[in-house]
C-alpha cells in the first residue's frame, strides 16, 4: 500500500526549491554590486598589466603581481594578442601571456586601458552561472632608448566575466556569496 504524500511534505519541498532558486537569482541591488566588483577586477587587471609590462619593475615584484593577476581569471582562460603588422590574433594562456609581456624586448613599454564598460548585461546560464562581457580599449606603446617611440597601437578587447554563487564556512556557518572571475580576453580590432 502506498502512503500518500502529505501536504506538509509538498509545501516543505516547494519552500526548499524556491529558497534555492531565490539564492540563485540576483536582485537589482546585488547586480549593481556585482557589476561594480567586475569592473573593479578589470581595473585591477589593467594596473597589474602596467606593472608587469614596465621594464623598471624588478623581476621578483613582477612575479608577485603575475600571481595576483592570474587569480583574477577562470582556469584555462586565454588572452588575445594582436599587432598592426599581422592579420591573425595569437591567444595565450593567462600565465604565458603575462610571462611574455614581462619579457618584451623594448626599453620601455606603456599599456593604458580606457573606456572600460559593460557591453552585455549578465545572462544566466543553465548551470546558474551568470556571464557578461566588458569592453576595454588598450593603448600599447613601445619605446627604444635611442629611437624613442617605435611601436604604438590601440586594441578593442572584450573580456568575458563569470559570476558564480559560492559558499564558504565562517565560524561554523555556511555563508553564500557571489564571486566574479574573468575569462577569455578576445581581440575585436586593432588600429593605429
Question: Would you kindly provide a written description of the structure presented here, covering whatever features stand out?
Answer:
The protein is built from four helices and six strands; from the N terminus they run αααββαββββ. α2 (28-53) runs antiparallel to α3 and α3 runs antiparallel to α4. 34% of the residues lie in helices and 43% in strands. It has one domain (25-191): Nuclear Transport Factor 2, Chain: A, CATH 3.10.450. β3 and β4 form a beta hairpin. Residues 1-23 have low confidence and may be disordered. The protein starts with 6 loop residues before the first helix and ends with a strand. The longest helix has 26 residues, at 28-53. The protein has 192 residues and is an alpha+beta fold.
Summarize the structure.
The protein is α+β, with helices and mostly antiparallel strands. The chain contains 4 helices and 6 strands.
Task: Name the beta content range.
Answer: 35-45%
By DSSP (H or I, 4+ residues per run), the number of helices equals 4
Average of pLDDT: 86
Number of strands: 6
What keywords describe this structure?
single chain, about 190 residues, alpha+beta, Nuclear Transport Factor 2, Chain: A, 4-stranded antiparallel sheet, two-stranded antiparallel ribbon, 6 strands, about 35% helix, about 45% strand, globular, disordered N terminus
Amino acid at each position: 500500500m502506498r502512503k500518500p504524500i502529505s501536504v506538509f511534505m509538498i509545501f516543505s519541498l516547494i519552500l526548499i526549491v524556491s529558497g534555492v532558486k531565490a539564492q540563485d537569482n540576483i536582485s537589482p541591488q546585488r547586480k549593481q554590486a556585482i557589476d561594480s566588483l567586475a569592473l573593479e577586477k578589470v581595473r585591477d587587471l589593467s594596473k597589474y598589466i602596467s606593472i608587469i609590462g614596465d621594464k623598471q619593475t624588478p623581476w621578483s615584484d613582477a612575479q608577485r603581481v603575475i600571481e595576483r593577476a592570474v587569480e583574477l581569471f577562470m582556469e584555462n582562460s586565454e588572452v588575445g594578442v594582436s599587432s598592426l603588422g599581422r592579420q591573425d590574433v595569437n591567444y595565450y594562456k593567462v600565465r604565458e601571456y603575462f610571462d611574455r609581456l614581462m619579457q618584451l624586448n623594448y626599453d620601455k613599454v606603456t599599456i593604458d586601458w580606457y573606456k572600460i564598460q559593460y557591453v552585455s548585461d549578465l545572462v544566466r546560464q543553465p548551470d546558474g552561472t551568470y556571464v557578461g562581457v566588458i569592453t576595454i580599449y588598450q593603448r600599447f606603446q613601445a619605446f627604444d632608448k635611442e629611437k624613442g617611440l617605435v611601436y604604438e597601437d590601440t586594441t578593442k578587447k572584450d573580456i568575458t566575466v563569470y559570476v558564480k554563487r559560492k559558499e564558504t564556512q565562517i565560524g561554523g556557518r555556511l555563508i553564500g556569496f557571489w564571486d566574479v572571475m574573468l575569462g577569455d580576453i578576445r581581440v575585436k580590432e586593432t588600429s593605429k
